[in-house]
Amino acid sequence: MSFQDTDGQGRGQWERAGGREGGGRARAPRRSVVVSEVSQLTPQMVRVIIGGELNEWGATIPGGHFKLFIPQGEGAAMRTYTVRAYDPESARLTVDFAIHAGGPASSWAQTAKPGDAFQVSGQARPGYMPGESAEWTVFLADQSALPAVGAALELLPAGYRARALMEIPSETEKLELMSAADVEINWIIESDVPCQRLGEAAAALDLPDGDGEVWVGCEADTMRQIRGQMLHERQLHPRALHTRAYWKRDVANHSDHDTGDDVD
Q1: Which end of the chain has the smaller Cβ count within 10 Å, N or C?
Q2: Three-state SS for 263?
Q3: What's this model's pTM, rounded to 2 decimal places?
Q4: What pLDDT digit, counting tens, does each position of 110-148 carry?
Q5: Which residues of 147-182 are buried (b: 16+ CB within 10 A; e: fewer)?
Q6: Which CATH number fits domain 136-263: 3.30.10.20, 3.40.50.300, 1.10.10.10, 3.40.50.80?
């Protein structure tokens, strides 16, 4: 999963084919897709490979996000997910779902099987690529953002430096992440309070020398805590900081537009 799936009614009726966003920009029509393959990566992570109307979908930037519409009653529950991979030749989309109790997308992923039909948004929004002058990236993420980090690491070039600090619920949730870059991966096991240890690790982190960037994806309050530290205590330039809330404690279907810029 990308932006965490929690209890609550989705906004499926809000985004209609040919509808418009709040700023007036027309959305591309939804695409009809089907499940092609399902595999269990870890006890709490399910990978679903999707086919269907995905020709020229355009999800080429790692960790981009899109809307997924899960059939629910007479409508659909809308959730935001990360593009783990997209193959333009086969027009197949890979999505990793972190399983949490109660959410409609998590529940769907646990029982998904080849042939199951649903819809996705007409195109994906861009993900993360380091700036041209960046020499390194530090990734700070919880399990909900792990697919985005994995996708970004795979496209980093040889010789680039990266460090990933990732909080997961247990040792069994570790994944093998591939990259041509020089990558150091640190797994943090979650405490009773999700993201608490990630926030502590961020506060104690020594950033590498040289020009670099910090990417943060996790719970909304922890993201703001880290963002504030990086801007005000570490004096990181705002353009070198990329932050996004993937979920918010006690909030269903938290906005995928939350970048925490209110702490600037």
Answers
A1: C
A2: helix
A3: 0.88
A4: 999 999 999 999 988 888 999 999 999 999 999 999 999
A5: bbbbbbbbbbeeebbbbbbbbbbeeebebebebebe
A6: 3.40.50.80
